[in-house]
Amino acid sequence: MTAPVGRVKNGRDDDFRQDNARSMTTAIDLRERHDCWVVMSDLFVDTEIDYAYIAASLRKRCPNLSHAALEAAFFDEVAPVLGSNLLTPIPPVWLAFADEDVIREISVWLDQQQASAFSRFEARCGRAIRRRRCIFRSIWQALDRELTALRAS
After folding, report:
1. pLDDT values of the chain reduced to their tens digit, one per residue, 153 residues
2. Helix (H, G, I), strand (E, B) or coil at 59
3. Residue 24: helix, strand or coil by DSSP?
C-alpha cells in the first residue's frame, strides 16, 4: 500500500507537518508578524531609541505575539537583517527604514535561510544565533524592561 500523495515527503512525516504548519499561517498572523518587524526596525536606526514607545507599539500592533515570540523575532528575524546598520561607522539608515523594505528584506532573508542547506546547518549549530544574541543583547534587554513594565501596569 502506498502513502497518500503529499502525506510523506522525503520519507519523513516531519517535513509534511512543517509544510502544513507553514501553510496554516493566516493573513492576520503574517500581517502581525510584519508589523512586529516594522516596529522593531526602529531599534536599528542611528538615532536615540525610545524603548517605551517601541514596546507600546509592539503591544498595540502585535497583541497576539507572546513575549517569547517577540524575542525570537528580534534575534532570529530582525537583527540578522537590520543589525548591520548599527555595526557600520556611518550607518546608511539614520532616521527610519521604509516599511516595505523591512518586510521585503526580512522575507527574502528568511526564504534564503530555508533554501540553503548550509544556512539550515549553521542555524542548527547555533553559532550565528549566539553571536547575534551577544551583539544585540543590550538592545533586547532595554526593550524587554519596557515590555515587562507594560505588562505590569
Report:
1. 333 333 334 444 444 334 434 443 566 688 999 999 999 999 999 889 999 999 999 999 999 999 999 999 999 899 989 988 888 777 777 778 889 999 999 999 888 877 777 666 666 665 566 667 778 899 999 999 999 999 888
2. helix
3. coil
CA distance 40 to 20: 28
- pTM for the structure as a whole: 0.73
Structural domain spans, the chain: 13-152
Q: Which residue has the cell 539608515?
A: 93
Task: For residues 35 and 73, give the distance between their C-alpha atoms in angstroms, rounded to a whole number.
Answer: 11
Residue pair 82/54 in contact (Cβ under 8 Å)? The answer is: no
The C-alpha cell of 22 is what? 507553514
